[in-house]
Amino acid sequence: MQVRIPTPLRSYTAQEPVVELDANDLVEVFAQLDERFPGIRFRVIDERQQIRRHMKVFVNDESVRDLDTKLAPTDEVTIMQALSGG
């Protein structure tokens, strides 16, 4: 499956915008990402094991907040940083 990495987190992935993984759910996605790119998981997942409020995770075109979301090999996971303004 493909995991799309947002520009602000690409410093962890040597500027790679897309990472190929083999995971069954989002828990595995972030564990594998952190194994390959230490520190990236903490930027997306907080101490309570939840997706940080300012981050968005999409599976295909659907926004998800549950890390137990099951994945198929053909799914595309997109990590996005929410924008805010004043």
Summarize this, please?
This protein is α+β, with helices and mostly antiparallel strands and 86 residues long.
Task: Please name the defining characteristics of this protein.
single chain, 86 residues, alpha+beta, Ubiquitin-like (UB roll), 5-stranded mixed sheet
Question: How is this structure best described in words?
Answer:
By secondary structure, the protein is an alpha+beta fold. The chain has one domain (2-81): Beta-grasp domain (Ubiquitin-like (UB roll), Roll), CATH 3.10.20. Helix content is 19%, strand content 23%. It has two helices and five strands; from the N terminus they run ββααβββ. A five-stranded mixed beta sheet has the order 2-1-5-3-4, with no helix packed on it. The longest helix is centred in the middle third of the chain and has 11 residues, at 26-36. It is globular. 17% of the residues are buried.
Please outline the helices and strands:
Blueprint (H helix, E strand, L loop, with lengths): L1 E3 L13 E3 L5 H11 L3 H5 L10 E5 L2 E3 L11 E6 L5
Parallel strand pairs: 1-5
Antiparallel strand pairs: 1-2, 3-4, 3-5
Give the end-to-end Cα distance, rounded to a whole number of Å. Answer: 36 Å
- Using the coordinates shown, work out and report the CATH topology: Ubiquitin-like (UB roll)
The main pleated sheet reads as: 5 strands, mixed
- State the helical fraction: 10-25%
> For this structure, what is the CATH class?
Alpha Beta
The number of helical elements comes to 2
Give Rg in angstroms: 12 Å
Order of helices and strands: EEHHEEE
Strand order of the largest sheet: 2-1-5-3-4
CATH architecture: Roll
CATH superfamily: Beta-grasp domain
Helix/strand/pairing class, anyone? alpha+beta
| Molecular shape | globular
